Structures are given as C-alpha cells and as structure tokens.
Amino acid sequence: MTKSLADLGLTTGTWAIDPVHSTVGFAVRHLMVSKVRGRFTDFSGALEIAEDGTATAHAEIRVDSVTTDNPQRDAHLRTADFFSAEQFPLATFTATGFRPQGDDFEVDGEFSLRGVTAPVTLKVEFLGVNPGMGNGPVAGFEAQTVVSRRDFGLDIDMPLPDGGAVIGDKITLTLEIEAGLQA
C-alpha cells in the first residue's frame, strides 16, 4: 500500500524549515580526482499539508551565503562566472508533485538558479516525526539530486592543459532538513 504524507505523521499545516538544524549543501568534482563541498547558510522554506492530504513545498536560498570554507573561492562563486549573486540573489525550488516510495518520496519540482528554471527530482528519505522539545512536532528529511551546472548557465570550463577541467559538470545537491509544525 502506498503511504501518503499524512500516513507518515505529517499532519495538516505548515512545516517550516529550521535553518539552525538544517543544511543545504553541494559537491562538485575538482580536477576530476576529488570533490569540493560547500553549503549555503541563508535559506528558508516550508512544506504545506492541506486538509485533503495534498502537499506543496517551496524553498529559497540566498546564493551569496555560499561557503566552501575558502574565502577566495567563495568570492569567485558569487561572481558572474558562477552564481551572479548580485543579479540573481535567490535560487528557488517549488514542488510540482510528490510520489511516495514506501516510507520515502520522490519530489518533482522546478529549480531556478541564475534566472534559469529547470525540472529536478529530489530523492527524499523521510526520517520521521518527533514530538520536539516543547515547541511542537518536528520532522526530518534527507534529500539529494544531481544537476548539470551547464543547464543553469554555469558554463565556465576552466580546462586543464593536459585535458579535463578544473570543475566537473555534475553538481550533487544534498539537503538535510528539520522542519517544525507551525502553530
């Protein structure tokens, strides 16, 4: 039997992302032999569960909040070579559909970055609902998707003299989300 979000304990209402207990991160190949990992420190979003059990979700990420723990690289990521943070300050995600997969989900949606919107599918592991610590229930999710940076106009190649490139095309986006039911 396929479970709905409500069957998993996600009751009707707005489940807002708790940015203090959540992470929005990414990883990309560097020199084709290792990975650079980073994260965004300023983001928000919510999952809305309607009375009829249908759901919507949306999120915003301030791309100028990127950190890879390397200030020089972070400054470069904010430029027109990458995020164009001044011109396009937000990356957004809006869910277009939820497909239960046992206790987990695939969430289809539209991801926008640098003024380009493309479809993505998040593979979401539902971690459960906890009564919380006095402020109401909290739910946990881990999600991942892989996107092509070129699909979003991030087409800087930075080729290496002997072949290959400084950065890979495939970006793994990883979300570790704790969301609280709003009163």
UniProtKB/TrEMBL annotation:
Highest taxon above the source species: Bacteria
Pfam families per record: YceI
Domain Lipid/polyisoprenoid-binding YceI-like stretches: 14-180
InterPro entries: Lipid/polyisoprenoid-bd_YceI (IPR007372), TTHA0802/YceI-like_sf (IPR036761)
Alphabetized PANTHER family for the sequence: PROTEIN YCEI
The family this protein is said to belong to: Belongs to the UPF0312 family.
Protein name: YceI family protein
Organism: Nocardia jiangsuensis
Taxonomy of the source species: Bacteria, Bacillati, Actinomycetota, Actinomycetes, Mycobacteriales
